[in-house]
Amino acid sequence: MNQIAFLLVPGVHLLDLAGPAQVFSTAGDFGHPYTLSYVAERTEVPSAQGLPLTARSQWPELGPEDLIVVPGWRVHPRVAAPVIGEGVLQALRDHHARGGTVASICAGAEALGRAGLLDGRRCTTHHDVQDELARHHPGAVVVRDVLFTVDDRVVTSAGIASGIDLALHLVATRHGPAVAAQVARDMVVYARRNGGEPQASAMLRHRSHLDDTVHRAQDIIDTRFAEPLPLPALASAVGVSDRTLTRLFSRATGGLTPLRYQQTLRLERAEHLIGHGATVDSAARSVGFEDARMLRRLRARAG
């Protein structure tokens, strides 16, 4: 995902657009730059909140590594859904056929459905229009009560603020959860919600606090969790005593010590490796355990 192209439809919700755009823009501030572009059938696009937007009418050149995002629009029973031209729908189909990823926020899933990209795939949308999406596109597998789904490079989210969760997930997938945690923290979105899937990262689950000392300690652990991190060295790095760091850490994370937090990250990464074919022994070594016995104990405890 070097380029992110946002397809703007009349009545677009500003937060559907701005939330993911801010995630990718902030990732660029931390050394992972993206080129953001905004495309529409007409260069002037009215938003649902009344702010007029300006877009380009020509698509940028997109490769398989790039992403198209369709933000949602205002849905009202007395207002017809926006017309989306066949040329735009073909652009969505072509990008996916070339190996690219397409994503939708909220009612934007309707555009993916009209392009035929939801047939046989898991998807979701805002709870107000889930029934409508299922009725319009009977070949789609509409999943309810989740924040986002990912199926064969088709990514859909429930709507509004969940677009931020979706974008953070994409950043975590490409750059690792530590980068996503860094972006979330900078956006003051410490508690990234999971998508109803097991990909939720402990790095983000335990960021729902405002203790800067603990965040700095977590920054170190996040990037070096496979290394030995003695408590005295960690405490010294953030400028407090061992006892103070342990007390602050436990209070901020709901009872975790720095060591237990590190073990949680190691276990999560090991489970990911095992799920992708690694042996328990090799996974244990990859995440910093000298042998597999500790990993087996942690897996048994978690199970």
TrEMBL record:
Keywords recorded for this protein, A-Z: Transcription, Transcription regulation
PROSITE patterns hit by this protein: HTH_ARAC_FAMILY_2
Domain HTH araC/xylS-type: 215-303
Matching SMART domains: HTH_ARAC
Pfam families noted in UniProt: DJ-1_PfpI (PF01965), HTH_18 (PF12833)
Protein known as: GlxA family transcriptional regulator
The organism of origin for this protein: Kitasatospora cystarginea
